[in-house]
Design a protein that fits this description.
This protein is an alpha+beta fold. The chain has four domains: 204 residues, Heat Shock Protein 90 (2-Layer Sandwich), CATH 3.30.565; 116 residues, Ribosomal Protein S5, domain 2 (2-Layer Sandwich); 91 residues, Rossmann fold (3-Layer(aba) Sandwich), CATH 3.40.50.11260; 121 residues, Up-down Bundle (Four Helix Bundle (Hemerythrin (Met), subunit A)), CATH 1.20.120.790. The chain has 20 helices and 22 strands. A hairpin with a 4-residue loop joins strand 2 and strand 3.
Length: 627
């Protein structure tokens, strides 16, 4: 038998398109061809289970090999094989998939939809790296003859008698000069590890050396010897395809280590297992990330029937869950012909919503069943929850029940609990409830202490995300504002009806203001003399809440760039009722007055970590002289 002809396509320019534009990366050819081999093997197993194949199908291991001298790469399977007519139908007619006809024929069989053939354009990805592609195939059908097909990348092909003696197919690529990088063991191994690590059929790539027991030595200690064994590159039964009831915690952890061998163990995980109205399996892990948002997001791997597709899953997974790790596998996520990019589709949205719901339900379950454990994990999972509430309204509705507010004293409250805690005492003269918070408890200790002396509570918001979460809470919690504890003196943060009276005359007040302005001598510090309690600090340095918040948001990409470029501006509040201010006024020596004012100001700077460099050195020297 020998036949020549032209491949049935709409344009002779199809091959340049395939080579340059259809696939985003030329290494995809190996994924496509190995996936085809897996599909052919799965079809055979299905036919065997339906009684359509005589006898035992035997070993179905797929083998990938290469010959550097001959410049060939071969993918061999022991699957369904093809007759000459099937080669003409499935190979020569580009974009015709044998799966559609196959599923239709056996649609009465359970799970027939799981069998997908990928002949057609997937096969033609071979021409991205090969000058000539050869097929040697023998169908499983009784009496079938071996067939050889060859094409040099043009629209011409040749079919002749083949030499294969066992059922299955060999795809032989004669690698072009531009793609000789693939004629390398480590390069092929890397691609197979990336795309085929969890394929459902064993994939062999050469051999590897391992050790096995070899008796005992003279001292009775076990001996080992080196042996060559098949290098099987894949785990054919990964955790996510199993039922949750089959797995223990150690199984989930072992699979996580298989995915991320150098990562710290995760906090917990969610096993996805849906078969209606779409098919979805997978395992999502919550990693330990603390407050660091500068992490790699592309840690979730998307598979389709155990074939790795991409780690760009932003359309499938909600934005806030991109921080998770794990695997999602769904045959219902539509892909373009190269299996490389997600397409907009209603199923994608449904899957996205389902994942959001599953995560919210899991977090709520953990909170209700083990609140103490949930609180212990909050420093890690709080980032997920807050991020989700900021970006996903449906998640936020559910998260209201388990989102926690942490105080500087390491106490935890739900949003509802905290509102109840402060509603009576932390309310200003206008009836507005004020939440006080700190983003750096160590440097803001003097402000926190002043708040506590008033009986107030202070929240701990020290995550970069909290700049945005503060604004979110103000929008969502009725009649409530949030103020950072160092944004003003405590009496101004929660202003009550009773105002302090200034003990200084207007002339004395002006004199104090001029004295401090001279001692500070910096335009970025605006001096105000105000009536505060005698036991309040003599000098306090603060930044206006609005300006400070805008600058913080600008630093974390909150769209407030104009504020980020403005110089820092601080308010210096001098307590006109403090004994030290009175002493400064009574000092007869002008130099001593200025020195005391400067010392009081520097103490205020020191209390909030703003005194550095030469200013700090001079402060220490002055302090020593005052002793």
């Amino acid at each position: 038998m020998k036949e020549k002809g032209n491949i049935s396509i709409h344009t002779e320019n199809i091959f340049p398109v395939i080579k340059k534009f259809l696939y985003s990366d030329n290494e995809i050819f190996l994924r496509e061809l190995v996936s085809n081999a897996v599909d052919a093997t799965q079809k055979l197993k299905r036919l065997s289970s339906l009684g359509k194949v005589d006898g035992d199908i035997g070993d179905t291991t797929i083998e990938v090999s290469f010959d550097e001298k001959a410049k060939t790469i071969t993918i061999s399977d022991k699957g369904i094989g093809m007759t000459a007519e099937e080669v003409k139908k499935y190979i020569n007619q580009i974009a015709f998939s044998g799966a559609e006809e196959f599923v239709e024929k056996f649609k009465e069989a359970k799970d027939a939809n799981e069998i997908i053939g990928r002949f057609g354009l997937g096969f033609y990805s071979a021409f991205m790296v090969a000058d000539t592609v050869e097929i040697q195939t023998l169908s499983y059908q009784e009496g079938a003859e071996p067939v050889r097909w060859e094409c040099d990348g043009s629209t011409s092909f040749e079919i002749s008698d083949g030499n294969r003696t066992q059922r299955g197919t060999d795809i032989i690529l004669h690698i072009n000069s531009e793609s000789e990088e693939f004629l390398n063991q480590s390069r092929i191994q890397t691609i197979l590890d990336k795309y085929g690590k969890f394929l459902p059929v064993p994939i062999k790539f050469g051999t590897k050396t391992t050790s096995e027991p070899d008796g005992e030595d003279e001292e009775g200690k076990p001996k080992y010897k080196s042996v060559e064994v098949d290098n099987i590159i894949n785990n054919t039964s990964p955790a996510w395809i199993k039922a949750p009831s089959e797995l223990k915690d150690e199984d989930y952890l072992a699979f996580y280590r298989e995915l991320y061998p150098f990562s710290e163990d995760p906090l917990f995980w969610i096993h996805l297992n849906v078969d209606y109205p779409f098919n979805l399996t997978g395992i999502l892990y919550f990693p330990k990330i603390k407050n660091d948002l500068d992490i790699q997001k592309n840690k979730i791997k998307l598979f389709s029937r155990q074939v790795f597709i991409t780690d760009e899953v932003k359309d499938v997974v909600p934005e806030f869950l991109m921080l998770l790790h794990g695997v999602i596998d769904s045959p219902d996520i539509p892909l373009n012909v190269s299996r490389s990019f997600l397409q907009a589709d209603s199923n994608v949205k449904k899957i996205n919503n389902h994942i959001t719901k599953k995560v919210a339900d899991k977090l709520n379950e953990l909170f209700k069943t083990d609140r103490k454990g949930f609180q212990e994990k909050w420093n890690d999972i709080g980032v997920f929850v807050k991020y989700g509430m900021l970006t996903d309204d449906k998640f936020a509705e559910k998260a209201n029940d388990f989102c926690l507010l942490k105080t500087v004293d390491d106490e935890y409250f739900t949003l509802k609990e905290y509102a109840e805690k402060v509603k009576d005492i932390q309310v200003d003269k206008d009836g507005q409830i004020v939440y006080l918070y700190s983003n750096d408890a160590a440097n803001q200790d003097s402000f926190i202490s002043a708040a506590k002396e008033k009986g107030y509570d202070v929240l701990n918001f020290d995550s970069p995300l909290d700049n945005h979460f503060v604004s979110y809470l103000e929008q969502k919690v009725e009649k409530t504002s949030l103020k950072r504890v160092d944004s003003d003196v405590i009496d101004k943060l929660i202003k009550k009806e009773e105002d302090q009276k200034l003990a200084l005359s207007e002339e004395e007040s002006n004199s104090v203001k001029s004295l401090f302005e001279k001692a500070i001598n910096k335009e970025t510090y605006q001096v105000h003399v105000e009536p505060l309690a005698e036991d309040a600090l003599p000098v306090t340095v603060t930044m206006d809440e609005f300006m400070r918040r805008m600058k913080d948001m600008a630093q974390t990409g909150g769209g407030m760039g104009i504020y980020g470029s403005l110089p820092d501006s601080y308010k210096v509040t001098v307590n006109g009722n403090h004994p030290l201010v009175k002493r400064i006024l009574e000092e007869s020596d002008d130099a001593n007055k200025e020195n005391l004012a400067k010392q009081a100001f520097d103490l205020a700077l020191l209390s909030r970590g703003l005194l550095t460099g030469a200013d700090l050195t001079n402060f220490v020297k002055r302090s020593i002289n005052l002793i």
